[in-house]
Amino acid sequence: MHKKILFLFIIILICSFSVGCDKYDVIDENSNNFPPINPLPDDKLELILYYPNASMEYLVPEFRAVPKKSEDVEIIAINELLEGTKSKNLVNIIPANTKVHTLYVTDNIAYVSFSKELIDNNYTEKEEALIIYSIVNTLTSLPNIDEVQILIDSKAEDVLCNHYSIKEPLNFSDMIVIKDYISPISIINEYYSFIIDENFDKAMDMLDLGDIEKIRYNTSKAYIVDEFKGTNKFVINNYVINKYEEELIINLSVIFTYEKNNVKSSNKSISLKYDGNTFLIKGLEN
Fold first, then answer.
1. In whole angstroms, what separates CA 115 from the centre of its chain?
2. C-alpha angle 102/108/111, rounded to 5°?
3. N or C: which end of the chain has fewer CB within 10 A?
């Protein structure tokens, strides 16, 4: 149902930007002028493939009619995705020399094994997300697939490159479709920067604390002030994001420097929640 709603939203959005959409006349379906519906020929198949827009900020669906073959539809879809976009407004992000070794579906989970060329580049965090969900969203647009497990040379890897986990099967993400990518780690960096600058009210604004009374807010703020007392620097060494959806988790390693150059290293697991505009940190983070 979720995919059907998103599909309808995409159609409406595309139509709203199409030339002349705002000049249509209303035509009664019983009128001789009512346009007939032209379904695809029996020998054609329509796929929804996902590619980044030209500025590499989000994914856009590309609708493509292709000849039906004896292969399974998921094989056709992934091969069409790797063939590259046909649109001048979209770009390819999966390396051209990437190959698919195997693809099979079990219990509505697609297991797709790529050649190591998929992970040969040193991608940015955003590029990793675009690559992963170009694959995941394309395959989960098919009715028989709910999740996708990405494999490299038939083996499960912890991350695609540096920052996005591919250890577990992933679901369709509408967070990255026609919606600018928001870097989860940038939220954490901004939060700690406010704390270092002793701008605790702005740091508190980045927390999702639920519906709390003012006294609870003040108590929470006092806790943060005390917890980070004397902190003058932080460095995030590495981090891994478990998925790019409305709720996600970042596992990270961070070093805090305090007065007199005292140093504390900490491993953290931080939950983020999308509020319709940006990500908020769930609960009190310290």
1. 22
2. 20
3. N
**The pTM is what?**
0.85
**Which range of residues forms the domain containing residue 234?**
184-282
Residue at 16 is within a domain? no
Same domain, 161 and 220: no
Q: How far is CA 257 from CA 75, 213, 231, in A?
A: 51, 33, 6
The CA distance from 101 to 152, in Å, is 9
CA distance 3 to 33: 33
Which DSSP state fits 174? G
Q: Say if 37 falls within a structural domain.
A: no
d(CA 133, CA 285): 28
Q: What is the pLDDT of residues 127-186, one digit of tens each?
A: 999 999 999 999 999 999 999 999 999 999 999 999 999 999 999 999 999 999 999 999
